[in-house]
Fold:
Amino acid sequence: MKKDKLKEYFSIPNILSYFRLVLIPVYLYVYFHAHDAAGYFKAAVVIAISGLTDMLDGFIARHFNQITEWGKLIDPVADKLTLAAIALSLAFRFPLMCVVFAMYVVKEGYMLIMGAVMLKRGYRMDGAQWYGKVCTAVTYGVVCALLVIPNMPRRVSNGLICLCMAVTLMAFIGYVSFYKRVRRSKRG
Structure:
C-alpha cells in the first residue's frame, strides 16, 4: 500500500470514524445488558462519546485540512450504522421507534440511490445538508434522553419519538427537494 493511502486511511479523523464503528457493538452490549437506570446511563455515555467523536472528526478534518475521499465515505457510514443500531435497539423498549427506524431506512436508502445516480452523472455532494445535521442532532438528543431517563412517562417518550419522526421527515423532504434541484441544474 502506498504511503499516501496509508496516511489517508489512518488520518486522525478517519481513526475517530473507525472508533465510532467499534462503539456500535459496545453500545449494543451495554444497552442489552442494562437492567436499571445506571445501565442505561452507561449506554447513553457510549452514545455521547460517539456523538462527540463525530463532531471532533469533522472539526479536525476541516481545521487541519485532513479531509480525504475515504473520510467522506467512512464518516457517514459510521453515522448511519450508529443511528440505525440505536433506533433498532430502542424499538425493543419503545415500539414507536420502529417507525423512526423504518423512516430512517427509507430516507437513507433514497439518499444512497440518489447519491449513486448523481455520482454517476459527475456530481459530488460535499457533506450533509443543514436539515440532515439537524435531524442527526435531534435524534442523538432524543436517544440520550430516552436512555438517561429510562422511566420517562410513555406520553413524554412518545412525544420525543414523534419529534424525531418529524425531523426525519423534514430531512427526507429536504433531500428529495435537494436532489430534484441538482438534477434540474445538471440538465440545464
The longest helix spans residues 154-187. The helical segments are 3-9, 12-32, 37-63, 69-90, 97-120, 130-148, 154-187.
